[in-house]
Design a protein that fits this description.
The chain is mostly beta strands. It is built from one helix and seven strands; from the N terminus they run H-E-E-E-E-E-E-E.
Length: 157
C-alpha cells in the first residue's frame, strides 16, 4: 500500500508542475513504524510485533521540460516473536520518477531482509526478497513491468 501511495503522490506532483526555472528540493523524513500480529512462514503458530523506523531521503528537480525525482526509503526494526525469538529487519526501496511533456516513468527497486535469532541469540536463518517495478505512461496510456520477486533463504527455515 505504501508503494501505491508513493506512486500516486509522485504522479500528482508531476501532473501539477508548470515551472519555468529549475527548482531543486531535497528532503529527509523519519517516522516510527509498528505492526502487530505478524506471522512467520518458517515457524507456523507464532506471532510477532514489529517496531522500527522509516527514513525517506529524496531529491526533486523541476524544469520547464518536467520533473526528475530520486530517493531512498529505508526501514529498520525488530520483530519480537511470541516464542522469545526475534528478527532484525531492513527494507530498502530505491525510487525514481521522470516526467516530461509526453512520458512519465516511475521505477521502484525493493529489497527486504531479516535475520532471525533464537531467544538465546543463536542465528536461525536469513530471508531476503528482491523485486523491481516500472510504470511508464506515454500519451495517457500506462505500461507496467514487474520483475517477479525473488526470495532467498539462508539457514534453517
Amino acid at each position: 500500500m505504501r508503494k501505491l501511495a508513493l506512486v500516486v503522490a509522485v504522479g500528482a506532483l508531476l501532473a501539477t508542475s508548470t515551472a519555468a526555472a529549475a527548482t531543486v528540493i531535497r528532503g529527509t523524513t523519519e517516522s516510527p513504524i509498528a505492526d502487530t500480529g505478524l506471522t512467520d512462514d518458517c515457524r507456523p503458530g507464532i506471532t510477532g510485533d514489529l517496531s522500527g523506523t522509516e527514513v525517506v531521503d529524496f531529491q526533486s528537480v523541476e524544469t520547464a521540460e518536467g520533473f526528475h525525482i530520486v530517493g531512498t526509503t529505508t526501514d529498520t526494526g525488530r520483530i519480537d516473536w511470541s516464542d522469545g525469538s526475534y528478527t532484525i529487519i531492513e527494507s530498502v526501496d530505491h525510487f525514481s520518477a521522470n516526467s516530461g511533456l509526453e512520458t512519465t516513468v516511475f521505477t521502484l527497486a525493493h529489497e527486504d531482509s531479516g535475520d532471525t535469532y533464537s531467544a538465546s541469540g543463536a542465528f536461525l536463518y536469513r530471508l531476503t526478497f528482491h523485486s523491481v517495478e516500472r510504470v511508464t505512461v506515454t500519451g495517457g496510456i500506462p505500461h507496467a513491468e514487474f520483475e517477479r520477486g525473488h526470495v532467498h533463504v539462508f539457514g534453517n527455515c
